[in-house]
What does this fold into?
Amino acid sequence: MTPEVVDVRILVTGGTGQLGTAVVARLAGEDVRVFSRRRAPGYARGDLRTGRGLDTALAGTDVVVHCATDFRYEVELARRLVEAARWARTGHLVYVSIVGVDRVPLGYYQAKHAAETVIAESGLPYTILRATQFHALVRTLFAGASRLPVVPVPRWRFQPVDVRDVAGRLAGLALADPAGRVADFGGPEVIEAAELARLVGAASGRRRRIVPLWLPGATSRAYAAGGHLAPEHADGKITFAEYLAEQADAGALGYRRR
Ligand SMILES: NC(=O)c1ccc[n+]([C@@H]2O[C@H](COP(=O)([O-])OP(=O)(O)OC[C@H]3O[C@@H](n4cnc5c(N)ncnc54)[C@H](OP(=O)(O)O)[C@@H]3O)[C@@H](O)[C@H]2O)c1
It folds into this structure.
């Protein structure tokens, strides 16, 4: 007798965002749907803040990959989702968080940490993956390097990771058994902010004077101490330089390499 193949139904919240889009692409071939506030063919439409559309979207769903985020309402979104998922008896909730949410005293990090707790204490089978900063965010942080004549940068390091690498890991976790909090996921290299600024400037065809600075405050100290890094989990493959080269070739940096 051939074993019965059971389709796993997966719902990706934030499936229209930068990470969620990559997760949906990685899950191509699976029974996967996007949950979004937008109206589009094939989307399960709803709003995690109000709970609108959640019950319908979760009916018959086995796994939710929660990539939706709102820095003002991160915990509320998680609470709504957990309530509805409990009601729907969802078999697995996968949440993506940030490395160091319990070490860096930034409001958004604290909200992510609180949302992790909501999920971990929900009674639902869950998996939580913390990732380091995405390439696009790091590029935005150092965008000044392509505009300003002198670029001040903090004396911090970053471990930029590509959303496609994180998405690959999340897709694997979504198709596996719930695992609780799993090992952090970091980019392939830990790089000084000054070097990142230099790379961003160079990718835009510009050479700028970069001035490393010490910044005061508890958040700065936590970043300087590497609270947001996971050097022991340098699992991503795509480097920041490779990402910038792709962006430049796509004309996204306002400059094309010759
Ligand atoms: N950026 C980083 O460096 C980084 C690093 C580590 C972890 N993360 C985490 O990765 C996750 C994804 O980040 P991202 O940068 O890919 O996000 P993003 O591109 O900003 O996308 C946000 C998504 O959230 C959805 N959303 C927001 N409010 C919603 C609501 N009320 N109801 C339903 N959907 C809502 C949006 O969907 P619609 O507009 O279509 O409704 C959108 O798809 C976040 O949890 C973030 O904390 C990010």
Observations:
- The mean pLDDT is 94.
- The CA atoms of residues 101 and 109 lie 5 Å apart.
- Residues 13-14, 16-20, 36-38, 47-49, 67-70, 77, 96, 98, 112, 131, 133-134, 137 surround NAP (CB under 6 Å).
